[in-house]
């Protein structure tokens, strides 16, 4: 298959769907954008509802919590296209203030964190020249949101396996209750987003020079507060930007030349948010 290949996880609604729509609009008719999600029916309905024009949008089921899911899809994409050009790791498990962290943390880490490291392992090796791999994190993904005693857990990690090990330790501490009353924040989103950024940093370290020479950007991105059902569970987001609006700054990172200062960092509105 000729043309470029792009892929977005968790794209059945919210920011993921807006990213697919924006990619399709800005890419060409010979290109393919994979709209992926965990439910075949929701994936098919999301594809059908998209406006015509631009790149071809193809639905694929990818439950990022499934251990072999990303690897299997990566193999299919590689067979069809010979590589991948753009990947957005966007999927997130929806939790609300009434959820007991001990009850949800296992699934939460599986989707948001192990799902992210699986995606990085499966698709980063397929990136073609001028490729983009962007992990959607948030402004909570910097170390200053964590007690200083915990910084070493996520700072300076040099492999995805080390990141997974730290995520597992945090998950287990939340599950068995030992995280309560200690240094860990009660809001599970914070360690989870920090670990997503740590995963990008760990993979980026050894790849940096080669990727930049090839025009590749690997980074974590922050869309800012948006009006989606997930954020509405926590905050009054009626006045917050729509996912389509928030997607624009993320798409600019795809279609504008790479700024080396953004490589391996957390980027919001084109600016790097300091890790420490
Ligand atoms: N909303 C905000 O204000 C805000 C702020 C900062 C950062 N972010 C980040 O932006 C990203 C998108 O957020 P959002 O508000 O657009 O979320 P959302 O509307 O809740 O959408 C989440 C998407 O992830 C999918 N998903 C859930 N579990 C999955 C799994 N196991 N495998 C694959 N897909 C799965 C959902 O699919 P289903 O239809 O199957 O549920 C849905 O399509 C997230 O990474 C979030 O943390 C959001």
Give an overview in words.
- With 276 residues, the chain is an alpha/beta fold.
- The protein has a single domain, classed as Rossmann fold (3-Layer(aba) Sandwich).
- Helices cover 44% and strands 16% of the residues.
- It contains nine helices and eight strands.
- An eight-stranded mixed β-sheet has the order 3-2-1-4-5-6-7-8, sandwiched between helices.
- Strand 2, helix 2 and strand 3 form a beta-alpha-beta unit.
- Helix 1 crosses helix 9 and helix 3 packs parallel to helix 4.
- The longest helix has 25 residues.
- The chain is globular.
- The chain binds NADP nicotinamide-adenine-dinucleotide phosphate.
Which terms would index this structure?
276 residues, alpha/beta, Rossmann fold, eight-stranded mixed sheet, 9 helices, binds NADP nicotinamide-adenine-dinucleotide phosphate
Short structural description:
This protein is 44% helix and 16% strand. With 276 residues, the protein is α/β, with parallel strands linked by helices.
How does the SSE layout of this entry go?
Blueprint: E1 5-8, H1 14-26, E2 32-37, H2 40-49, E3 56-61, H3 69-81, E4 84-89, H4 101-123, E5 127-136, H5 151-154, H6 160-175, H7 189-213, E6 217-222, H8 229-232, H9 243-255, E7 266-268, E8 271-273
Parallel strand pairs: 1-2, 1-4, 2-3, 4-5, 5-6, 6-7
Antiparallel strand pairs: 7-8
Helix pairs in contact: 1-9, 3-4, 4-6, 4-7, 6-7
The chain binds NADP nicotinamide-adenine-dinucleotide phosphate (NAP).
NADP nicotinamide-adenine-dinucleotide phosphate (NAP) binds next to helix 1 and helix 8.
């Amino acid at each position: 298959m000729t043309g470029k290949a792009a892929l977005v996880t968790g794209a059945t609604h919210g920011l993921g769907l807006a990213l697919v729509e924006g990619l399709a609009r800005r890419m060409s008719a010979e290109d393919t954008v994979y709209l992926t999600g965990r439910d075949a029916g929701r994936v098919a309905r999301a594809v059908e509802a998209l406006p015509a024009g631009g790149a071809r949008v193809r639905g694929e089921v990818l439950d990022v919590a499934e251990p072999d899911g990303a690897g299997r899809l990566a193999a299919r994409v590689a067979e069809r296209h010979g590589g991948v050009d753009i990947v957005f790791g966007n999927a997130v498990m929806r939790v609300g203030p009434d959820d007991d962290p001990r009850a949800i943390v296992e699934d939460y880490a599986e989707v948001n964190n192990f799902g992210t490291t699986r995606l990085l392992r499966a698709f980063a090796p397929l990136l073609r020249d001028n490729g983009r791999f962007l992990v959607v994190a948030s402004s909570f993904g910097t170390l200053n949101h964590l007690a200083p005693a915990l910084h070493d857990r996520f700072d300076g990690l040099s492999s995805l396996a080390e990141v997974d090990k730290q995520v597992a330790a945090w998950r287990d501490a939340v599950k068995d209750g030992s995280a309560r009353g200690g240094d860990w924040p009660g809001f599970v989103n914070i360690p989870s987003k920090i670990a997503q950024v740590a995963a990008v940093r760990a993979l980026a370290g050894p790849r940096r020079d080669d990727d930049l020479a090839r025009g590749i950007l690997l980074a974590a991105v922050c869309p800012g507060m948006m009006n989606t059902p997930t954020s509405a569970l926590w905050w009054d987001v009626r006045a917050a930007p729509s996912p389509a609006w928030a997607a624009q700054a993320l798409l600019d990172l795809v279609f504008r030349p790479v700024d080396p200062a953004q490589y391996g960092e957390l980027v919001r509105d084109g600016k790097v948010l300091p890790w420490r």
